[in-house]
Structures are given as C-alpha cells and as structure tokens.
Amino acid sequence: MDGDADVDKVVGPVLVLMRLLGLWPQAGRDRTGCLTGAVRRTLAFVPMALMVVGSALKLCLDTPEQFEDITLCAFITNVVAAILLKAVMLVVQGGRLRQLSRLLAEAWAEFPEAAPGGSTGTRGRYEALADRMRLCFQVGGLAPLLCWLSAPLVPRLTAAPGQRRRRQRQLPIPAWMPTDVYASPAYELVYALQALGCAGACAATICADSFFVRLLLLIAAELKVLNENISSIRSTDPVRGDRGYTCRCRETAVILPSACEDCRNTSIPPSEKTADELHRQLVNIIRHHQIIIRMVSLLQEAMDVSIFVLLFANMANLCSSLFTAAILLQEGGSMSKILKGLSPLPVVLYQTSLFCIFGHIVTDQSEELVNAAAGCQWAGCDVRFKRSLLIFMTAALRPLDITVGKVCPLSREMLLQVLNGTYALMNMFYYYHHKTK
C-alpha cells in the first residue's frame, strides 16, 4: 500500500479527476473496480465520440454554405477527436505510466538531493511549477467550455420578449441528425448530451495535459538533482584525527571531541574522503542516470502517438480558429461566432508551447551532465574513479529528448515549426477563400 501511495503522490492533485473519468485505476482493484472504471470511461468517451461523428456527418451530409461555418465545423471535429485520442491513449498506456510513476517514487526515496530543502529544494520547486501549470490548464479549459455552452443561449436571452420565439435555436456543436433536432424534446436532449461531451472533453484534456507536463517537469527535476549530486562529489564530513575531529569552519584548525555542526556544510578537498566512498557515490550517480534514461524511454512511449497527433491537430486548430475569426470580422459576422472561434485559441497555443518548452528543459538538463561531471573534483581521485567517470561522461554525451512520432523532438525548434506550419496553412486558406468568392 505504501508503494501505491507513493505512486499516487507522483500523479499529484489531478489524480481525483483522472479516477472520476476512469483514466487511472484504483490501487488493488478487483472485478467491481474494473467494472466501475469501464462505466466511467464509457460515460466520458461516448458523448465525445458522438460529437465527433455528428460534426463529421454535418460536414459530409449537410455541408454549411458559408466557408467560415465549414472551417468552424472542421475545427470542432479536429479538437474533440484529438482530445478523445489523448484520453484513449492515456488508458492504453496506463501500464507504462504507472511504471514510470513508480520509478519516480523510488528515485525520490533512493537518491536524495545534495542540498535537501523540502518544498524549497529542487524537486519541490519543479513540483510547485507543475501544480501552477495544472491550474493554468484548468482555467484555460473552463473558459472555452463556458463560452461554447452559453453561446447558443445568448441571442435568445438578449432578444426582446416578442422576438425570442422567432430566433432559431442553436446547438453548442454543429451536428447532423436524422430527425429535427430543433424541436422539443429532441433539442433539450441533444443539448444536454453535447454539454456532457464538452465537459468530458474539457476534463479529459486537463487530465492528460496536466499529467504529461507534470511528468516532464519531474524528470527534468531528477536531471537537475543528478547534476547537483555530480557537482557535489567531494568530502562534506569532518575529518576524524588521532585525538578527535578537525574543525575547519574557523580561521585556524581546532581539534574537537565531537563533530562540529558547521563543518557538515563545509566543503573540503576530495583527497580527505576515501577512494571507496567516492567510488560508491559515483556508482550511485550512474544508477540514478540509468533510471532517468528508463524514465525518458517510458514517457516517450506513452506520449508518442497522442502528442504527435496533438501537435499537428493544434497546427490545424490554430489556423482554423484564426482564419474563421478573421473572415467573420471582415464580413461582419455575429459576435457569438467570433467568440466561439477565438475562445479555444489560448488553450491550443499554450498547450503546444508548454509541451515543447518543458520537453526542451529535459534536453537542456541532460546536456549539463557532461559539464557537471567535468567540473567535479576528480583530479585527485584514483584510476578506478576516473575510468568510471569517463564511462559516465561517454554515456551522457548523447542528450536525452522526448521524440514523438519518431521524428518530432519536443523542443523550442518544434514549436517554431508548428507556428510556421500554421502560417502556411492560413495563407493557403485565404488564397482558396478569395479564389472561390
């Protein structure tokens, strides 16, 4: 049970929402727990799938006349389909993600920081940053959700009492149905189903994005801790002499009967630490590095499909959202449509940015390993230590990165490629729009 509690601690505050949606299994689950999780996933996934199918059928069987309506419908289909894929892959890759969480929990227990600071230490700072990113995802997800669900009601609520019945009913998500969905009670039923699907999509994307970003930051924290531990390869204990302990925290060396508290934080040359102690410390660092390599491999396998699709979907989503809003502004479209088109834009933009930037942080921290190893006090160590350090530096020469889709490393360069692709698509859409006008 302690191991499961440590794994849950790695997942963080988003664990409650993930279990509510059935995306993360309960510890020690039985048949009843499996059935409960399956029911929760069904209630979350089916409305999202119906939204994708309804929007796709709207494009194929009842294509809107206005080009901006076509792009808006395609945008909705693309966004919800990408979210659904992310949620499904989160369940499919649950075993790898649980194994990764267990490795992180073991690393926390087995490899302490060189300068432990609790919540103010390296791991504590990165974990606090992950919690702030989760809050950003929550706020950024709820704002578009409220906008999409309330947009169809605003024209009817703001209209004069005599004109409310003349106003045509609208749905949050354009969808094709074999029957008249604007007549009661079909309208209310479809509206409620779409509201459930939108809420499920919002919750699912908060869970997946927050969890993946948290794992990226926790792995970056492990690399930072590893860099600090390598740099601290030196004796930090008082030296035991013939008559007692040698105190080095004063201007002149003083012999004390017991260890001085101040000396424990005083660095002294590595020659005063035995060769065996230094080698054991280096072996511990190498083991930590090997575990981190395994963590990166597991996270890459878990993010491979979903984040690769997400990057390209977001490129199309950014283009579609900006293009729709621009056309509506030029042609005097309704403000509700403009707001609906622009509302997901901040979420899509910072979602893409955070994955690329935090993935780049992992690579940056791994590139510092060689410099940290070269900067430690190895000159006065024995041959065995130097050989082991050389092997470690050779292994650390290859930086660690998260590559999705086999060809797209999460980095700042990848973010620029996504933005360039968005600009190219917008130019193509503008050309096609003016050509067909």
Automatic annotation (TrEMBL):
Keyword Ion transport listed? The answer is no
Q: An example Gene Ontology cellular component term from the record?
A: plasma membrane
Task: List GO molecular-function terms, semicolon-separated.
Answer: odorant binding; olfactory receptor activity
Entry annotated with the keyword Transmembrane helix? yes
- Pfam family membership, one: 7tm_6
Cellular localization per UniProt: Cell membrane
As for membrane topology, the entry says: Multi-pass membrane protein
This protein's UniProt keywords: Cell membrane, Membrane, Olfaction, Receptor, Sensory transduction, Transducer, Transmembrane, Transmembrane helix
Q: Which InterPro entries match?
A: 7tm6_olfct_rcpt
Membrane-crossing ranges are: 69-92, 305-329
Family in the record:
Belongs to the insect chemoreceptor superfamily. Heteromeric odorant receptor channel (TC 1.A.69) family.
**Protein name in UniProt:** Odorant receptor
Q: Which organism does this sequence originate in?
A: Ceracris kiangsu
**Which taxonomic lineage is given here?**
Eukaryota, Metazoa, Ecdysozoa, Arthropoda, Hexapoda
